[in-house]
Design brief:
Elements: H1 6-10, H2 28-36, E1 43-47, H3 51-57, E2 68-70, H4 76-92, E3 104-110, H5 112-116, H6 119-128, E4 133-138, H7 178-183, E5 189-193, H8 198-210, E6 215-220, H9 224-227, H10 234-243, E7 250-253, E8 256-259, H11 270-273, H12 288-315
Parallel strand pairs: 1-2, 1-3, 3-4, 4-6, 5-6
Antiparallel strand pairs: 5-7, 7-8
Helix pairs in contact: 2-8, 4-6
Amino acid sequence: MFNANLKKLSQCPTRLEAGHRLCPGCGISVIMRQIMSVTDNPLVISNATGCFEICTGAYPYTAWNVPWIHSLFGNAASVIAGVEAMHKSLEKQGKLSGDQKKTLFMAVGGDGGTYDIGLQALSGAAERGHKFVYVCFDNEGYMNTGYQRSGATPYGAFTTTSQVGEAHTGKEQFRKDLTMIMAAHNIPYVAQSSPSNHFDLMKKADKAFKADGPAFINCLSVCPTSWKTDTQTGLKITQTAVDTCFWPLYEVENGVFKITYMPKEKLPIIAWLENQGRFKHLLKPENQHIIDALQKEVDTRWQKLIKLEEATAEDDK
């Protein structure tokens, strides 16, 4: 059971140092610090190309205090799977001792390197059953290369490849539901989380590290540069995504769905859209139909999640 003792958490080793080059207000470092604070085991990380990799490990500098591997855009899961397999072999050969046997393995990547380019490698590593944790920090676009649309970009959002003008009004497709896709792999642990609910995220990280096999955490990560938001309001904005159920918090543990945060009052989707510059065109009266379609999609997915929780809870009895 996760011990939410702040004093104990504050004494965990610092895996990610200050002085990295992430933008002010970026959600990635907050997410990673919360996740890595739940364990003091040795940790090996494979990092897909992207914002996080560029900003924490640009040669000859590094912000990392753990073995850290810069992988290609699409193979972070394959790289960590290979490292985990090597470690398992060395342990069988009796070549490991002490804390070496407790080593944990984690791959990290943004939505570009996870939802899209890295999905094949992630799916394969999950299907093969490697014991590792994959963390996706979902900032809903290819931020490192100038904010192009990704499979995670919301319907109606402006990006440099889903522009707003006479012919188009932002992205024309709904976002891919990667958390559900990973749940369909029937791996031991899958979770959706937000850094605004820090203890919820850390509890899920603790479960993920202790899972007997692959684990996946999808975490919403604010990008002030491309979302066009105030750098000081990131956690408030991500919490709004949670309270509108655009980004519900839940986990799937051995096939059992559980909603881990139920909003006291489910807010309308406009509360999530109105404080982000990438959605400002949707606030015009002529684009109300886009908001209505997005609201319907959010409500449909939320009700589906509630039914999955009810159904799997019954099956688990």
